[in-house]
Amino acid sequence: MEVTILDHTMSHRLEDIRQLPMLENCTITRQILDRVGDKWSVLIIVNLGVESLRFKELQRRSGGISQRMLTQTLRHLERDGLVWRKATPTVPLTVEYGLTKLGESLLQPLASLVEWVNGNRGEIAKARSGYDSDHQDTELAGYPAVE
Q: Which of 32, 122, 137, 138 has a Cα at 20 to 30 A from 106?
């Protein structure tokens, strides 16, 4: 497959990527990419990018996430310095979450990724359909199309 460089800016980005340390040698880099690339983390960060939220409201806006998974993901994001947690001693206890400055700095890259996904959904759906047609006997055949 031949890759064509469309513009001078793209060639600079490719050169910058080539100079990055190999990811398999960067444990912390892989861990952070795993965290911020996780579907629940993305949903939580995007939701908290709009406004700080209480736990149940965040769970409602992150449709489909279990209480256990939300708690676990929030703890990881808080540990990484992306999310803050504020507990108010009321009855019942009120807990609110929001993005730290570091978490806010992640919103633009995530928005770019979402924009890329939305701009390429049709092409990805076509590629999947073609792959499924060519590999009907494999496990991925029938993989849901991007909607």
A: 122
Report the DSSP beta bridge partners of residue 94: 88
Dihedral of alpha carbons 30, 33, 39, 41, sign: positive
Beta-strand pair 83-88/53-54: unpaired
Q: What is the per-residue pLDDT for 5? A: 40
- Separation of alpha carbons 54 and 59, rounded Å: 9
Which of 15, 32, 10, 14 has the alpha carbon at shortest distance from 23? Answer: 32
7 residue type, one letter: D
Q: Give the torsion through C-alpha atoms of 23, 47, 102, 90, to 10 deg.
A: -130
- Report the amino acid identity of residue 116: W
Position with higher pLDDT, 116 vs 19: 116
Taking the model in full, what pTM does it have?
A: 0.70
For position 89, what pLDDT does the model report?
Answer: 93
Amino acid symbol at 78: E
The total number of residues shown for the chain amounts to: 147
Q: Is the previous residue joined to 21 through a cis bond, with omega within 30 degrees of 0?
A: no
